[in-house]
Amino acid sequence: MNKEFSYYKLYFLITFLLIPFCRINAQETPYVKVIFDNSMMSGSYYNTSVMYSGESWIKHKQSKLPVAETHVFTPKNSLELQYTSADTDDWSAIISYDKIRGIDLFQPATHLSFWIYLQNIENLNTLPNVAVLNKKEEPSKEIEIYHKVKLIKEKWQQILIPLSQFSEEFDVPNISGLRFSQSEETTITNLIFIDQIELISISNTSKLTQNPEILTSKGYERHIDITWKQVTDPSVRYIKIYRSTADGTFESVGVQSPGISGYSDYVGKIKQTEFTHKITFLDKNYKESSFSNAITSKTRKLTDDELLDMIQESNFRYYWEGAEPNSGLAYENIPGRTSMIATGASGFGMMAIIAGVERGFISREEAVERFLKITLFLKKADRFHGVYPHFLDGTTGKAVPFFGNKDNGGDLVETSFLMQGLLSALQYFDANDNKEAEIRNSITAIWNTVEWDWYKRYPDSDFLFWHWSPDQEWVINHKLIGWNEAMITYFLAIASPKHPVPASMYYSGWASQSKEAFAYRSNWGKTGDGSLYTNGNTYYGIKLPVGVSNGGPLFFVHYSYLGLNPHKLTDFYVNYYENNKRIAEINQRYSIENPKKFTGYGENFWGLTASDGPNHYSANEPNPENDEGKMTPTGALASFPYTPVASMKALKNYYLNYGDFLYGYYGFHDAFSLDDNWCSPLYMGLNQAPIVVMIENYRSGLLWDLFMSNEDVKSGLSKLETETQKLKNEK
Question: CATH number, domain at 448?
């Protein structure tokens, strides 16, 4: 496959080249633009840079500002500015806004606000000046802050600067960060701390009307999960979490967004095993409510099965508690767009919910109510010849062209991910009652009206096409050619009872041997390996029958096989369980050899796949050309059916050794890089569910059994087997 036209590269091109972008939907809730609240990782803050010259100096770690955990305004950390200012020299520190996928609508603001803590300073005139930066990182005029601060040491003070003082050009969307810089000469080394940098309006005077109430507390090996009564008071800015220490006092350990009703407090290896928690609410002016009730639980050693339960449940929450409320479907990422749901991630999430019922996280009755909501929404939502768009507005059901104005129609691959989940649900909800019958009838109606054959584009086409736009038709013109994540698309198109494509398209399209397909695959991984769909090369001692490059990113062996059981899928070339297992093993062995010498890589630190990154979203692979040094937990954890021992080693390593920054209420954050000292703030809809589902397939085969028991799926498999035998006879 040509790397430039892989799934994620395609959308990268759409996002950045095919403009103008869509208008943000009116239902989206705007965010406060926060330039800094907390660093995910200790040591230094990735989104900073410092410079100094001559005898001036500022403390740094590899040109990044240090993170401080001893002095915090909003826990768990702040930024440390320790500096000396020489008369003729200079220093500066830039703090950049972390551009988070989908956070692109902001509340209006009148002021730059940040909090400052004076630890060691004699003259306020030596406090730094501050400027804001535009999108080109060009600074505004500098503002002196010394006259906005009182010389009160060891106490947090708020600094408010009207944005108009910087320049009328520096409005909220245009501000990309701020710069602290040297002011007057110092005779000592100043030490101050900065926290909670944001753009706010100071007109808000609303008071808290809700009292905090903790509901549950549950201890695990290295963390405590606490939940609280859902926040309905719009005046709440944060939930502040307190934990008891060994001497019975309470210290603040973190804050949580009011949209999330729980917190995973990672306590690590400390000897204390019993912990009591309380919470408070902070209003928009950071005034604190009274304490909630206290609740106590203990950490304890977990068995491997209990550890798997824990990981499945936390990632399951993304789709259950974190779902868009009107549709019941999954967000693209959290935090992110507040009304936009992702079609493919929602299909994955349905399967995670089914696993959640079987694991006892929720009741079957609760799942039934959720699926009634989901199917009612989907029946009314935008479809294009029966095919859903990549993104839908969860409040209206209308297509959201998030990746640009050409992305305003049907997305066949995302729809196939959705249908994989719906068909599993069709088999699961088999009770003889009205509600479950309604779910089955709705899913059947949706399934039967997907016009897979329309997406051939031409009657005699060898390929399926990814997109169709109602006003621009086939403008994206992207043919689906394997090896990638889209095998399920061809399989379901063949299996369709009402709008099937010929089974021969599996070989003419997905596994095509044509010159066009050869060219399409030839540049993947910059090696040309796998250009004929088959590969045949040996990587790190493992021969790979099918696959581009040396296997590609691991989502290739996850997304199509959440329901489609690779054990039962054998084509002309290979059995796909065996092939996928080899791809996962290659991925781990690459990390063991670690040719680029990235920190951490090894037998318990692997899983290169598609994820958020320090600078961009990308699909990383087990080869030096396409390995950026970021690791994605779902890579190894969704590979449990293929590599259970290696996946368990990675799971324990990620949780036990990196859980302080990597593990949260919705499971593992999307990705991290030890060399960059960076961890994604995101939970990703496409990456949380495969952990739940593939661990369940490893443990019980549940989703594989459900999906494969569907009569249309059986028919599709039979058609493919017949076509394969026909090809063998011809050869």
Answer: 1.50.10.140
Show which of 283, 301, 319 is a domain's final residue.
301
For 32-71, letters b (16+ CB in 10 Å) and e give bbbbbbbbbbeebbbbbbbebeeebbbbbeeebbbbbeeb
Query: What is the C-alpha to C-alpha distance for residues 61 and 179, in angstroms, rounded to an integer?
Result: 17
Q: Residue 204 has what pLDDT?
A: 64
d(CA 93, CA 309): 44
The answer to whether position 443 is within a domain reads yes
Percent share of the chain, pLDDT over 90: 90
Q: What is the pLDDT of residue 5?
A: 37
- Bigger pLDDT: 527 vs 12: 527
The conformation of residue 232, written as its DSSP 8-state character, comes to -
28 is a domain residue: no
CB distance 384 to 410 below 8 Å = yes
**H or E segment and range at residue 519:** helix 515-521
Largest Cα–Cα distance in the chain?
Answer: 89
List, for residues 616-648, the tens digit of each pLDDT value. 999 999 999 999 999 999 999 999 999 999 999
Task: Give the chain's domain count.
Answer: 3
Q: Residue 24 corresponds to which amino acid?
A: I
At 136, which CATH number?
A: 2.60.120.430
Q: Are residues 434 and 406 in the same domain?
A: yes
Tens-digit pLDDT profile for residues 153-176? 889 999 999 999 998 778 899 999
Q: Which of 143, 177, 200 is where one domain is finished?
A: 200
Q: What is the pLDDT of residues 25-34, one digit of tens each?
A: 447 889 999 9
Average confidence score pLDDT of the chain = 94
Residues 629, 663, single domain; the answer is yes
**542 in a structural domain:** yes
Query: 639 and 557 in contact (C-beta within 8 Å)?
Result: yes
Given a cut of 90, is residue 303 above it in pLDDT? yes
**Are both 409 and 526 inside the same structural domain?**
yes
Question: 70-119: per-residue pLDDT in tens?
Answer: 999 999 999 999 999 999 999 999 999 999 989 989 999 999 999 999 99
Residues 321 and 297 grouped into a single domain:
no
Ramachandran quadrant class, 634 (left: phi over 0; alpha: psi -120 to 50; beta: rest): alpha
At 525 the pLDDT is 63
Structural domain including 105 reads: 33-200
Q: Is residue 325 part of a domain?
A: yes
